[in-house]
Amino acid sequence: MRKILPYIYCSILLFTVGFAVGGYHSRTLSQKDIDDLARGNLQSMSLLIPTQKFPLFIRILKTNMGVIFCNFSGALCFALPAIVTTLYNGYSTGFFYSSASTVYGTGFVIRHTLPHSGEILGILISCAIGLLGAADLMRYFIKSTLPVNLKVYYIPISVAISITALSAAIEAFLSTLKY
Questions:
Q1: Angle at Cα 60 formed by Cα 57 and Cα 63, nearest 5°?
Q2: Which has more confidence, 179 or 96?
Q3: Nearest Cα to 133, choosing from 86, 80, 65?
Q4: What is the rounded radius of gyration, in angstroms, for the C-alpha atoms of the chain?
Q5: Which side of the chain, N or C, has fewer Cβ within a 10 Å radius?
């Protein structure tokens, strides 16, 4: 587990940079743009949450697993998918939080999004796996040594997938409850 820790720090840094850029970019919007975003988001929310929760769970799970497996593929593609996907997810999260906080207030946004933001942890772990795998693969090509023990990957991969599936279930079945 210690071997993956520096790569987790790198994935946190990538996400944070994307988050900061997204947050800064949303601050450059005019008030009219923010109002248009708020009206558009409110109108599209009714389309986003179907009445049946299981189809919503499947939709969220497929989307989040696509991101996770894209990050895993970074191991085979010199880390590019993991880097780009994590930066983009940080950017879109930062953009959303910043613009939604402007419209609804920071407390409201955190209260309504924090309980089901566990997929960010899955994204960070999967990015770290993609970065670690790319580093191991490059080490193999440069030094021509045998690949590392694949057992290093089993626990982080299963944790990332489990967290992502649990997060999708929380979003679909608990976050859509009326309160």
A1: 145
A2: 96
A3: 80
A4: 18
A5: C
Are residues 89 and 15 in contact, defined by beta-carbon separation less than 8 angstroms? Answer: yes
- In the prediction, which pLDDT does 47 show? 46
Under a CB-based contact definition with an 8 Å cutoff, are residues 129 and 160 in contact? yes
Token pair, residue 1, equals 């587990």
SS (H, E, C) the chain: CHHHHHHHHHHHHHHHHHHHHHHHHHHCCCHHHHHHHHHHHHHHHHHHCCCCHHHHHHHHHHHHHHHHHHHHHHHCCCCHHHHHHHHHHHHHHHHHHHHHHHHHCHHHHHHHHHHHCCHHHHHHHHHHHHHHHHHHHHHHHHHCCCCCCCHHHHHHHHHHHHHHHHHHHHHHHHCCCCC
Token pair recorded at residue 95 = 């953009």
Does pLDDT of 35 surpass 50?
yes
Report the pLDDT value the prediction gives residue 149, as an integer from 0 to 100: 75
